[in-house]
Design a protein that fits this description.
About 40% of the residues lie in helices and about 25% in strands. By secondary structure, it is of the alpha/beta class. The structure holds flavin mononucleotide. The site of flavin mononucleotide (FMN) has 22 residues, from helix 1, strand 3, strand 5 and strand 7.
């Protein structure tokens, strides 16, 4: 049994629910799991929870949310202390075919820079939920012009499979 901290930053809850799902799955495999939202301020950060970390964030404008990016930056010197997995929640699955393939291939530079700092066992990208009310007028116009689809694009099977991969590595 390994103690795992699942830390996330989420604006509209889909990343939070993905973090919960991963945490639940790891619990089912017998691990002790603490699931926590990352604080918006880097002040007062204590010890990292758990002997292993799963770190995730929603992606906004090509970057992790400030709480998650700030967490990585302010803990850069101890990021290698325990095995860590990263996940990013974006909207690749909302994009039409060619754009989607492009988005799936390319990790945005600001996120790639965080991966360089953390050096995780794996960095996985999932699609989340995107609704009209999440976007301002300009964003909604662009969304429509690009032919994107609103909705819940999460793939529960892929999320569970990834959590199972983590559990297997923890048990190895
Ligand atoms: C203002 C805004 C900007 C976004 N920018 C991106 C982006 O640059 N890349 C991407 O893949 N997804 C982007 N998304 C989609 C979100 O990452 C996606 O909806 C995700 O599920 C949000 O997670 P949350 O529900 O935890 O906040 C954006 C969404 C919003 C509302």
């Amino acid at each position: 049994m390994v103690s795992v901290g699942v830390l996330y930053a989420s604006e509209h809850h889909s990343t939070q629910e993905i973090a919960d799902r991963i945490g639940e799955r790891l619990r089912l495999r017998g691990h002790h799991v603490e699931i926590q939202a990352l604080p918006t301020s880097s002040e007062g950060q204590g010890p990292l929870p758990g002997d292993a970390l799963v770190l995730g964030s929603a992606v906004h404008d090509g970057a992790w949310l400030p709480a998650a990016e700030g967490f990585v930056r302010s803990n850069a010197d101890r990021m290698g202390d325990q095995p860590t997995w990263m996940f990013s929640v974006g909207m690749a699955a909302a994009l039409p075919g060619p754009l989607r393939r492009l988005a799936e291939r390319k990790v945005q530079p600001r996120i790639a820079a965080l991966v360089e700092v953390v050096r995780p066992r794996d960095h996985r990208r999932f699609s989340g939920v995107i609704r009209r009310e999440h976007l301002d007028r300009k964003g909604a116009l662009l969304f429509r012009l690009l032919g994107c689809r609103y909705g819940d694009h999460r793939d529960g099977v892929a999320i569970d499979a990834w959590a199972d991969d983590i559990a297997r590595e923890l048990e190895a």
